[in-house]
Amino acid sequence: MLEIVALEKRFGDVEVLRSINLRVGKGELVFVIGPSGSGKSTMLRCCNRLEEPTSGSIFIDGRNIMNCVSSELNRMRLQTGMVFQGFHLYPHMTVLKNVTLAQRLALKRGREEAEARAMDMLARVGLAHKASAMPGQLSGGQQQRVAIARALALDPRVMLFDEPTSALDPELVGSVLAVMRDLRAEGMTMLVVSHEMGFAREAADRVVFMDGGYVIEEGTPDEVFGNPKTERARTFLSRVSSRRGGDDE
Fold this sequence. Notes:
GO terms for molecular function: ABC-type amino acid transporter activity; ATP binding; ATP hydrolysis activity. By secondary structure, the protein is of the alpha/beta class.
């Protein structure tokens, strides 16, 4: 469903991504982990050309989006739902309007159709009862779930999550992870950048470890967490486990 081939990204003289190759099969949940500055979020943003790659190819369901002109690119972007660290909700709009706006602008849906789809997606993330609320009346976890509903309402083929829980208080993280767990059970294809090691170990089909702009290793959660092949991955996972008091064990 998603394939990254020889992806490179430079900012001036700084090489951020170095020949990245990665495939995500239909219905797979793939977690990308690694230290800050390793290029994880840049890679994710290149997947729908929010960042323009320096070179390489990105295929969504077999279509190379690097060959898309601007009008085609906008249509292709609708196939990749994106959920960021920040919620990016419009504070002056109700939850319902936040979830209907992109549908009406990008998909040209009528009001009734867009609102019906929005209510279905809000129900999916457990927030149909908050449709008339303003974002400022919601907790951070609720706002992030609205952001997920907004992305799902556009009927994406792939969901990209960039640190979706990093801005949340610890007690609110679980509600967002529960939605992602449900999406996995329903067969949504997902590429997730996150530090939620426990969730990755429990739910991921594969885990990718990045450092210094490279994919250092990848494998099943048992392989990467239980028996990492490289010294760099062993050191990183040991430090993460130590900081969290072994909670991920």
